Structures are given as C-alpha cells and as structure tokens.
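Notebook, p. 212. Picked up where the previous page left off. The plan for this session was modest: take the two constructs that came back from the sequencing core last week, fold each one, and keep the raw output in the notebook itself so nobody has to go hunting through shared drives later. Recording the first one now, exactly as returned: residue sequence, then the structure token string.
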Amino acid sequence: MFLSALLGVVGTVLFVAALLPLRQVAGTAAFAEMFLERGVVPFAICFLSFWSLAILFLKSCKLAFQRRSLALDVVPADHDFVLSSATVDNVLENIYQTVDDPRHFILFNRIVIALSNLRNLGRVSDVDDILRSQSQHDDSVLEASYAVLRGLVWAIPVLGFVGTVLGLSQAIGGFGGVLQSADDLSQIKGALQGVTGGLATAFETTLQALVAALCIQLFLTFLKKSEEEFLDDCDEYCVRNVVNRLRIMPYERELTS
C-alpha cells in the first residue's frame, strides 16, 4: 500500500506539472483550468485516482508473475508415475528446486500444503479436500484484496459531490453579495461573472470524479476477471497434475475397508 500510495503521489505531481504548460494554449486552457483553478478537490480526486491506478498496475504485474507458474511442470511427466506417500518427496523436491519459496506462488503453495499433509499422514483421500480448501481460501483472499480499491472508487465520487457543494455554496454566497452591493442591473451583470466560477467548480469536480471512478471501475472489473480465471487455471492444474496422479496404496485400502 505504501508503494502504491507513493506512485499515486508521483502520478499526481506529474499530471499537474503536465497541465501547467497547457494553460498557455488556447485549445487546452479550459481543460487545464478544470484542475488548476477549482480549489483543492480536483487535486484530491487526482491523487485517489492515481493511487487506485497504481494498485491495479501492481496487481496486474503480480498476476502476470503468478501466471508463469502454470507453465512449470513440477510433477514428473512420465505416465507411469504414481503420486503417493512414497513418491511425494520427489515432487516437493522439484518444487523447491524450481522456485526459491513456494509460499510466494499461489499454485505451488497449494500443492506444497496438500503434499506435505500426504507425506505426514499418508492418506491420499485427504489431498483433494485440502486442495479444495486452499482454493476457497485463495478466493477469499482475492476478494479481500479489492477492499481498499472499492473504498477508493467509492470515495472519488464523494469527493466530486463535496466539490459540488463547495462550488454551489461559493456561487450562492457570491450571488448574495452581488445583490447587496449592486445598485443597478449593469453592476449586477458584471458582478455575476465572478459568481460563475463557483458554478464551474460545482459541476466540473463532479464530472472529473465520475469519469475517474468509471475508468477505474472498468479496469478493476477486467483485472478481477483475469485473476478469477487464473485461480480457475490453478484448480485445473491441481486436478490434472496432482489429483489425477494419486493412487491409493494397498495398505491404505486395508485401512479404509
């Protein structure tokens, strides 16, 4: 979270710095003023937006790294290989030789936990149950990992509404001051030009927040779908390479009979 927040600050600073030269260009001056001349709310919206994008970017990088584990074969490809309590050490040794720490990989962590249970207890029938339990645990962890993102996506439109309230209060307060100080219609007309700045703040901050929240929500949806597909691929990998290789040994048949 600290790294993503730091990236959000850097992104906000770079975005604001990029807007400064645009204030001198006729075609883009209005766009730059939407962020630079509307108080502090647009800057807060930018920070939360870039923070959210940084979290999504880091999650996508981690997902790409986790997907690489699906291409690794840690169970011997020999069709005659039988996975049992007697051969489980061969698979565990392959895993530890392939990666530095299986706990850093969702797929290998599942397999190590299940096979460690098989090695310690010697019951093949428990491996499938353990893999299913780990799959449910990974689903829960995935869902919990989006809690902060959902909070940020909720907070961005709220900030837009806060900017709307501030802009409307500024506009209404300015209009009341114009009516008290102006004597004729021409003075009122000239003074109202300053009041429109509050209305611009009111509507533009809402627009910024809604557009930012929409983009982040779309990115979040596609990334979550990709992560769910990865977890499904992990389930399929475990069934194909672990569960389908399990064999109940003779002494286990005697215990279960």
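Okay, moving on. Second construct, recorded in the same format:
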Amino acid sequence: MSRREAFLDTSVGERRGVILLDGRPERLLIERDGDSPALRLGARSVARVRTVEAAFAAAFLDLPDGAEAMLPLRADAPRPVRGAAVEVEIRGEARRGKLATAWLLGEASGDPRLTGAGPALEEELKALAKVDTMQIGAAARDAADEAEAEALAAVHPLPGGGSLAIEPTRALTAIDIDTGERTGGDSKRVARAANLAAVTSAARLLRLKGIGGLIVIDLAGRGHDANAILSAIRTAFGPDNPGVAIGPISRFGTVELTLPRRRAPVLERLLGPAGGLTAQSGALRLARMLEREGRTSPGGRLTAACAPAVAEAFKPLAPRMTDRLGARFALEDRPGWPTDRLEVTAR
C-alpha cells in the first residue's frame, strides 16, 4: 500500500509544502510573499466583469488588488454583462501567458474584494497526503530541496533501468520512455516492464511538476499490451481525478491523455522564459544558503555572491535575514553571472 508523508519548509519570503509518495517527491506547493490572495487556488472574490468575448466563450474579470482572471462561459447558463459584479472561485491558477480560470458562483454587488481565502498550505498538504501531521525543520528543508531538484530535471531514471523524459511545450507535454540498458528477457517483455514502470513514475512526476493539459506518452517498443498499460494509467492518474481523460493506444505507439490544470506549473514558478532561475527564485535560494552556512558557522562572517538581478531581488529579504543571522553577512553582485550561480562563503 502506498504511503504518503507531508513536509512544510518555512524560509525567508517563501514556504514550500512537499508530499512524499513512498519516499519520493510527489507534490511541491510553493507559497511566496507577494502572491495575490485572490489568485490562489480556491480563493473566492467579488469580481467586476471587464469584457465579455462571445467568440471565445469567456468573460474577463477584474479581481481585488489589480488581479485578473478568465471566466469560461457555459452555453446553458446566463451570460454576465459588462460591468456586472459577480462572485467567483479560482479553479485554475495563472500560467505563463494565461490568466487564472474562475468559476461563477453567482451575482454580487459592490467593488472587487476577497470574500474567502483559499485553503491554507497546511490544510492542502494534509488533505492531499491524507495525514493529520506534517514534518518541519531540517527534514522539511531537505525534502523541499530534493523535490525542487527533481521537479526541475527533464530526464528521470526508472526503477529497474531505463529513463523517462518529460518535456513541456506550448501545445502539450511530451513524455518519452527509453528502455536504456534494461534487462529481463526478450525485448517485448523488457519494453512492457519499462512502460508499466514509466506510467507510474510519470503520474507522480507530473503531479510534482504541476503539469496539466494535453499529455502524449511515447511508449517503448511495439505490440503493446493495451489492457495492462491503460489499466496502469487509470490507476496511476487516479489521484488527479476528477478531470482525467485517457485515449487509446494509437498505431504509432502513443497514448494521449488530458489532466486538469489547477496549480501553476512549478517550472514557471522557479524558471524564467529562457529557462534559468528567475531573479526572485535565485534570491530565495540564496537566503536558504545563507541560513545553512550561518548554522554551520555560528560566529563566522558570511559573504554571498550572485548576479546583479538576484542581488536586487534579495534587497527586500535582507532585513529579515538580519533578524535571523544578525548583521554578519554581506552581499556582492557579480556582473556576468547567471541567476543560478550562487555562492556563500564564511570566514
């Protein structure tokens, strides 16, 4: 039987919630200072209808504090009118180039305002992991760092050999299964074992990365056992329901499925459009590095070096780091450094 554990890591400017499934990261939930409460999954607000676009079957909403969302319009429901006040709930967080998705709860009155915060991070973790308690402290920091590293990886080893590559694109997410040097009988048996292992790993990794939408899995080998593979897919992606749709295995050896989009993808939270760490992500990671080095060298003077953009993003965190460490650290910006090059030294 699968076992899930929950962890909550709290650092300056950020909280990271992690769920482990049989010891491996399954979910990484990131909450940062400055996140809009109105755009959090499950948040309820009174919104103002800015425009109604019949061609897109959608209305665009103004939420509290300048936030925006899109409201899909149902064919069998009355359409709101421009300027109307409505109460909505966020059902899908914003993604790069896409607004958050809202669900219409009913008519309202007054200016845009938050009427109900989404569930707290602790509540989400307990509900997803089905546990009553969670671990904090050093164990949570290690679990969050491991989850972040695995979420950022593109190629993942499979149990028993072979690998799984997950590559998001604008249109879909492609998953490639490679048997590698996997052994265990004839090629058909090897491919079947790799495909079944990959399906289970892919479900966990997609949840970890926060990826939804159209998924295309390129199975290894030929002549697939459709009943076994589709049954494994239904079981592996069961925790993502409601909203999972699975297609048949095509004659090209691929399986298409769609997953509901709920949270913002982890890669978009951590990385910029060019693929490197955002300046904010680098600053938050640098803060954790300073904390770690500060514990290792309780009386040492600390020097943190980073790219100028990361140094700029670190400035709002500096007073809180001083509260934690004292005035014993200095920040040096290094022109030409990428945002993911971070160094902390003690003397």
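Notes on construct two before I forget. Residues 14 and 32 are 4 Å apart (CA to CA).
Flagging for discussion at group meeting.
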